[in-house]
UniProtKB/TrEMBL annotation:
Domain Aldehyde dehydrogenase: 3-454
InterPro entries: Ald_DH/histidinol_DH, Ald_DH_C, Ald_DH_N, Aldehyde_DH_dom, ALDH_GabD1-like, GABD/Sad-like
GO molecular function, one term: succinate-semialdehyde dehydrogenase (NAD+) activity
Keyword Oxidoreductase: yes
UniProt cross-references to Pfam families, sorted A to Z: Aldedh
Taxonomy, superkingdom: Bacteria
Coiled coil location: none
Keywords, ordered alphabetically: NADP, Oxidoreductase
Gene3D superfamilies linked: Aldehyde Dehydrogenase, Chain A, domain 1, Aldehyde Dehydrogenase, Chain A, domain 2
Protein's name in the database: Succinate-semialdehyde dehydrogenase / glutarate-semialdehyde dehydrogenase
Statement: the UniProt record of this protein carries the keyword NADP: yes
Amino acid sequence: MSIATTNPATGQVLKTYDPMSEEQIDAAIGRADDAFHQLRGTTVDQRAGWMYAAADLLDAERDEIARIMTTEMGKTYASAKAEVTKCATAARFYADHAAEFLADEPADAAAVNAGQAFVRHQPIGPVLAVMPWNFPLWQVLRFAAPALMAGNTGLLKHASNVPQTALLLEDVFRRAGFPEGAFTTLLVGSDAVDQILSDPRVRAATLTGSEGAGRSIAQIAGRELKKTVLELGGSDPFVVMPSADLDRAAEVATTARCQNNGQSCIAAKRFIVHTDVFDEFAEKFAANMAALRVGDPMDERTDVGPLATERGRDEINEQVRDAIDRGATVLVGGEQPTGDGWWYPPTVVTDLTPEMRMWREEVFGPVAGLYRVESYDEAIEVANGTSYGLGSNAWTRDPEEQRRFATDLDAGNVFINGMTTSFPELPFGGVKNSGYGRELSAMGMREFCNTKTVWVGGDGGGAIGTAGAHAE
Ligand SMILES: O=CCCCC(=O)O
């Protein structure tokens, strides 16, 4: 895939970029390594100053950044602006909390026959970030903010269809004051990832993307013995039980499915509804989906814009056609429009069976699968009956069921009576084929730190580590 900005609303190619040469990549890794040595000599307060400045730039330039994101991948302008604001908030969160997250943690010295013992969190070096186009700023920022605050440097290989967003983030960090090379966008195709990750100066990798991309990065990283964090796909369940507030559940279900034009790893995709409330929920949900306004993503009244890529649009059309051919029922939508741009209408499909692609595959567009179940146990069986385990949602006002869902749903995130989303304060990641490792919170920052045990014998010397005192 060439590196280009192509407007998904029209299919028009607006700007193309030449991929970097091997020599240019090598030089960029060298700058990231130099910047790492520089950053190690800075204090958390210095880095926080730059991170606050980056947050201020994001706020000040929000509308223009959002316009570029919408032009590159079709998300609505309103949601693009919200994404920029969320990035500024997360940047400030890490600037506020890095000293606390990186502080030495005292251990029980006597229990380990030491005069002193503690745990120190130190940066490891340049980290490669392979990121997707769906939240083109947020996915990168949630890696970059904790990484830079810890004293690591970032090398970004962004999706080939969002080069302008990738370059502007590099520019924001540079203008905010971070040293040259602290955060670099590499304009490269995925064929360059092996060279980059094999370079001894690159210490680790984080990837948000498809299961296939995750396997490929993990293979290279395994060969090179490098740490990875993988956030892959999801086929999130949205379970509705008889005690649920059905109006609210149907409203949130619509947002949960169609957010970001249906292209989110944590979008609810499989709606698993107890038979006692199935018909009522299905009617309300289908009505909400049918009422969504599809159109120009720059228009503030639009709910659903185009799909980001032609291939992505064709894929969901094929998944829906496959279900229909095998006997599924379409309640709303289901017809791919003709004309320019990569559009697909909000769609609800029911009567799904295991041999259909929609039953077992992630559907990355505004298409909901509706499943009828007879009991709590069957709801759990269908919800967990997927190779993925990223987010999950359960709707019930019964406290006992709430407790059981929190334990029984096999996913990295469980949201009860709400929609799965991410917060800087909470860890984010998955289980099973949705990946491993966690982003965000203190955990996300420490994924790319050396958690160093320091043990000092009891025969003299002063205290060298104190809780809260050290933050490199
Ligand atoms: O594709 C993954 C989407 C993550 C969105 C979020 O963090 O809210």
